[in-house]
């Protein structure tokens, strides 16, 4: 749909709430976001309807007092900034990301006064921090607007990747600094963390990001964290020799994510 290629009758059916296939709605709404000419034609279709103008006006009268003045250069700038941020993250997620960062910081405090020869707890949980960040950035429990965002035409893997990037930028620097403080070098856990992140994204396309994050966290905790804390196992999977295996997992998970990327439109 480019230029003026949207038929007038299709715009009229959309404006008046006509029954349209779901895939047609996605394409049409995505086109309307970018085409002011088609939006103007749709506005004409709304004005021509005997019922819609009154309905739109009643909604405007009810909502306008809650929106503030809506005028001036400062208001416009704030509105544009909010729209730009909404493409990458939502304010409701920030407290959850802060809680995610608090987990490894608490691990640092627990390390104080502990045996010097024991594997740092932070090293064991650091690979999971990116997973937790991704989980809180895309699920219905941490984002009150998730149900609305997930059904928009722009939702999908691209939006998930944007929010994943924001989650990584927020969570990784504090964890890296905390790791250096207790001898848990980022070189040992960054690649496993990246592998876990891509695995969660791949699993998210199949069963949902939240479920995939829970599965990865539970498996790592049972197989690595618990045995290491019980002095029953040495975490060789975090040694440099394991880097090729982690890289292979990352590449395979990325390939699965790309292969099933369209499923992000249907898994909420």
TrEMBL record:
InterPro entries: Anti_sigma_zinc_sf, Znf_put. The chain crosses the membrane at residues 88-109, 121-139, 160-183, 189-207, 212-230, 236-258. Gene3D superfamilies: Anti-sigma factor, zinc-finger domain. Residues 9-39 form the Putative zinc-finger domain. The keyword Membrane applies. Keywords: Membrane, Transcription, Transcription regulation, Transmembrane, Transmembrane helix. The keyword Plastid does not apply. It holds the Pfam family zf-HC2. This is Putative zinc-finger domain-containing protein.
């Amino acid at each position: 749909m480019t230029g003026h290629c949207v038929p007038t009758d299709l715009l009229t059916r959309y404006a008046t709430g006509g029954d349209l296939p779901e895939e047609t709605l996605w394409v049409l709404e995505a086109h309307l976001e970018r085409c002011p000419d088609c939006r103007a034609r749709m506005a004409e279709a709304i004005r021509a309807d005997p019922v819609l103008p009154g309905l739109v006006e009643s909604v405007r009268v009810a909502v306008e007092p809650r929106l503030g003045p809506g005028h001036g250069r400062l208001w416009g700038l704030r509105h544009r900034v909010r729209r730009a941020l909404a493409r990458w993250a939502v304010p409701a997620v920030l407290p959850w990301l802060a809680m995610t960062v608090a987990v490894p910081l608490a691990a640092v405090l627990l390390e104080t006064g502990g045996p010097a020869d024991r594997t740092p707890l932070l090293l064991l949980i650091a690979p999971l921090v990116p997973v937790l960040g991704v989980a809180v950035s895309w699920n219905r429990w941490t984002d009150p607007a998730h149900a609305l965002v997930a059904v928009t035409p722009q939702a999908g893997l691209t939006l998930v990747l944007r929010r994943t990037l924001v989650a990584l930028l927020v969570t990784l620097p504090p964890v890296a600094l905390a790791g250096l403080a207790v001898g848990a070098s980022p070189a040992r856990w960054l690649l496993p963390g990246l592998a876990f992140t891509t695995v969660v994204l791949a699993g998210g396309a199949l069963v949902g990001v939240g479920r995939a994050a829970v599965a990865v966290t539970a498996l790592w905790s049972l197989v690595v964290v618990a045995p290491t804390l019980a002095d029953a196992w040495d975490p060789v999977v975090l040694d440099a020799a394991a880097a090729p295996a982690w890289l292979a997992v990352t590449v395979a998970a990325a390939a699965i994510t790309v292969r099933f990327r369209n499923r992000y439109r249907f898994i909420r």
